[in-house]
Amino acid sequence: MGDAIIKDDAELAARLAEFAGRIAVEVRDSGLIDGKPLGSAGDNTANAFLMRAIAAQRPDDGVLSEESRDTLERLNKDRVWIIDPVDGTREYGERRADWAVHVGLAIKGEPVIGAVALPGISEVLRTDRIAALPQAPEKLRMVVSRTRPGKDSQAVAEAIGAELVPMGSAGAKAMAIIRGEADIYLHSGGQYEWDNCAPAAVALAHGLHASRIDGSPLRYNRADVSLPDLLICRKEHAERVLKLVSELG
Q: Which residues are noted in the entry as Mg(2+)-binding (predicted)?
């Protein structure tokens, strides 16, 4: 980036996510770290870059990162960058493609700007470059955790006859809908703001539904950063899924 200031927030988010992903890949591919420490090394190195770059590019904005101590100074800011340097550390360490880098910008609590980098496939999905959604198949597909699928997701999938698609990162799951690999992402097993701010921003920009599983809007930059559940799907499926969640709840 040099000393140049990137004035466009969406372009900045995309650049940050892309370069942080490259850094994490370089750390992994160095061959100098292995086992459990690899995930932390990738997370921490990418986070150091993101924190420094955001401070240089947007010094007046707040930041909330999974990998940095939260000072709560962000609560006095209208603009807060919410980042997850490596979302899906298990998949990252296993050299799978379903991990992501999240860079989101919440403005007055709303997920307005964001980019989700998928370094395993060299792709960055962003709020300012909208791709046409592929047509949904007759048999819907629901992405779920590949290690611990939630009971709500499984129950709803059974009720609507959807195929379960196991996947790692929350960002990878959300982006799978835009990429035409899935149709519904329903999660109720616990997340934090950094897990879904950027994915929600990108999903909303692409015309998808994104909300809590009770249908209420997703809100960010709160003192309690827990945001335990969400639904991201095509708008035409949202009412049916939300109704089923309520009935099965």
A: 66, 84, 87, 195
